Amino acid sequence: MIRAPSGRRTIRSFVRRTGRITPAQERALDALWPQFGIAFSAHTLNLDEVFGRSAERVLEIGFGNGETLVREAGEKPEIDFLGVEVHEPGIGRCLISAEDAGLKNLRVIKHDAIEVLQHQVGDGALARINLYFPDPWPKKRHHKRRIVQISFLKLAASKLAPDATLHIATDWENYAEQIDELIAQSSEFTLAERHLHKGGFESLERQTTRFERRGLRKGHSIWDWLLIRN
After folding, report:
1. Selecting from 3.30.70.270, 3.40.710.10, 3.40.50.2020, 3.40.50.150, what CATH number does the domain 133-195+214-230 have?
2. N or C end of the chain: which has fewer CB within 10 A?
3. What is the mean pLDDT of residues 96-123?
């Protein structure tokens, strides 16, 4: 959610879709939530208590069905992963995959990522934030709903430790142009890498996502940015 000026309604960067949830996903939400889920609240999380240890933490915003989140958590057991998503079918699928993989270093929150960052994540608590293929809101009148705004960059920077990183990826050209402009305006981040490709390699140490594959099938290019918090 993007905060509007006082007296005006707030603008959310997502729409709660009512996609069909399978019986298995529904069972996972009931049975596995106590193991992997964190309820939203307006209180800062003690992540050492949540994970039972002190470690680097990575936050993925809008993880979809959890494909890349679960895979990365499985490949890097020394790092703790926190995923934020609002759509229940994807969350259910993520929980099933996390249980199948036997993960101990993954937790998920079902809520607006902006509010999670504002209220539940402590300042300087994260080593990395991943924002892969956020909703592009392609119509010009909806661009104000895009999550990547100056306010988002300031908020993300406050939750990252010094020299920690923010990784953004999109397959929409005019969103990429907007992101380039915002990065140029930002005093919170230094651009470390920017990649443009049409498939054929996995850039900036990330795995290919479902939304990326869909974009490539449509003939879209892929933009990646790796930003370092100043």
Report:
1. 3.40.50.150
2. C
3. 97
pLDDT digits (tens, 9 = 90+) for 76-96: 999 999 999 999 999 999 999
Distance CA 144, CA 2 (A): 9
Question: What pLDDT, on a 0 to 100 scale, did the predictor assign at position 198?
Answer: 77
What is the CATH code for 35-122?
3.40.50.150
Whole-angstrom distance, CA of residue 209 vs CA of residue 193: 19
What is the bridge-based pairing of β-strands 106-110 and 80-85? parallel
**Domain limits, the chain:** 35-122, 133-195+214-230
Active-site residue numbers?
A: 135
Of 104, 5, 101, the closest CA to residue 52 belongs to 104
φ and ψ at residue 179, rounded to 5 degrees: -65, -40
Tell me how far apart the 2 most distant CA atoms of the chain are, in Å: 48
Distance, CA of 154 to CA of 164 (rounded, Å): 14
Dihedrals phi, psi of 67, to nearest 5 degrees? -55, -55
Tokens of 196: 């443009």
* 3-state SS class at 228: strand
